[in-house]
Amino acid sequence: MSQKTCFVIMPIGEQEVGGTKVTAAELKTRYDDLIKEAIRKADPDVEVVRADEVSAPGTITIDILTRIMHSELVVADVTYPNPNVFYELGLRHACRIGTIIIRDKAIAEIPFDIAHLRHIEYENTPTGLKQLAEKIRYQIEHFSKNPERPDNQLLELAALTKYRFPQYEDRQGAAEAAQLEIVEALAQSPELMSLMVKKASGETVDDAALLGAAFANPGSASALLKALVKSGQISFKTPAGSG
Q1: Is 235 helix (H, G, I), strand (E, B) or coil?
Q2: Per-residue DSSP letters for 55-105?
Q3: Which option is the CATH number for 5-161: 3.40.1710, 3.40.50, 2.60.520, 1.20.120?
Q4: Which of 62, 80, 105 has the alpha carbon at shortest distance from 9?
Q5: Which sign does the torsion angle of CA 99, 105, 108, 112 carry?
Q6: From CA 232, how far away is CA 39, in angstroms rounded?
Q7: Residues 130, 87: Cα–Cα separation, whole Å
Q8: pLDDT (tens digit, 9 = 90+) per residue, 19-37?
Q9: pLDDT by residue (tens digit) across 125-177?
Q10: CA distance 84 to 98
């Protein structure tokens, strides 16, 4: 998914609210003519995808989970209470920022459990389309200006309590990348690199010589320090219990 993507979370099959049924075809029309169109007007370069365009209706596949996790933007229509919609929205909120919740204000009130979440109300009319596009554009700009700011209560609490989510990245690859950064930083100063190689080989190296080589090329010294901190070989954190 090299292109900027927007995954749309919404019901796919027939729904019923307050005794009124809405068909799958009607939901598809709402998606094609209103939601998808509004997103494209808000950002013409984004690829907009709904679940049934990548998976069989009613199933949550690896492709859907991948889009929930990795799409730059997710738009969730909660107009019709639907288990899959709420489950996918919860997964997205736990993964990353960049989620916009929308609902048709003429259909029903937003469910109590998510009523406190920020959301956009829209009208399924030509004027409503324009207004929805403007509001989505505003949210996209907000995300762009605040890329690290949590957009939901879970991530806000995680940031407040310093909660550490499980890490599944390629640790070996990350370590190799960090070591490469150290080598590249040393390559900027051949003298400093020579002294470091000697020290690593067990030779006696005067610390004053090391400092002199570092100060002779502040740029390489700064890059080296950043690489060492990133690799974990140097830490400025205060040890626990040290006061």
Answers
A1: coil
A2: S-TT---HHHHHHHHH-SEEEEE-SS--HHHHHHHHHHHHH-S-EEEEEET
A3: 3.40.50
A4: 80
A5: positive
A6: 42
A7: 29
A8: 889 999 999 999 999 999 9
A9: 999 999 999 999 999 999 999 999 999 999 999 999 999 888 876 655 555 66
A10: 19
